[in-house]
Specification:
The structure is a single chain. This protein has helices at residues 16-21, 44-56, 67-71, 74-80, 101-114, 118-125, 156-166, 189-197, 215-220, 231-235, 250-261, and strands at residues 2-6, 28-34, 37-43, 58-61, 84-87, 92-95, 98-99, 134-140, 144-149, 171-176, 179-184, 204-208, 223-226, 243-244. The protein is α/β, with parallel strands linked by helices. A hairpin with a 2-residue loop joins strand 6 (92-95) and strand 7.
Amino acid sequence: MILFTSDLDRTLIYSNTMMQTYPIAGDIVPVEHKEEVIMSYMSQESIELLKEFSKEHLFVPVTTRAVHQYERIHALSKDINPKYAITTNGGTVLIDGKPDLEWNKIVRNRLADQSRPKEEMIKTFAKIRHESWVLREFYIDDLFFMFRVNRELVPRGELAEFQAELAPMGWSIFLHGSKLYVLPTCLNKAFAVRYLQNFVDYDLHVAAGDSMMDYDMIIEADYGYSAIHGELYEKQPNDEKVKFLNGMGATSTEELLRNILELNVVR
């Protein structure tokens, strides 16, 4: 059996902007709504391939989204209904839709032991924060911060200094598009995947994602994939640890799913 741990946004599901930027020949299907507004799509082919895969193998969504944001993606959380899911960048493991209490305890203990309190991080961030480039603030599931930013106005030099100050405090930053993530270093998708691997049976681990926040999970898998429209390819196009897909947008998702369906699993 194949264990397939995959990022969601820009790996399996796509915004309207992404669908327009990288149009596909086949049908596209709305897979997420927020108050009647369509938030994201998949190609019909991708949905069918993922359903086919899930009949014999184990698909685990792995996302930086909060739990309620993951649950909005009805095509995954309800239609495919995976037994396991990982949200909040590894902060929460869902089993049959409910948080695993043991993992919650492990995460909280690591936060207490390895990261300085969030108030200290916010105080440090205040040295460079300005309303000209920080537009909105979100505290995700009481675990980490996501700031909406004006990417063109982000003071890159000051942000690098902020990152250097955070490292000994046990915090990390990721600037991903118009989002600046500031999170405890112990919140890592790969850590949650390792935990999950302790109690699932599989023969081969395949992972996929588009950003640097997926990198550890990708390189720890037997096969790790990423799309060339993503941040990972932009920053590390020659990384030999990652198999870069040829397609762009939803086409890359179809390519990914066909590839893993063709993998030979030694039983």
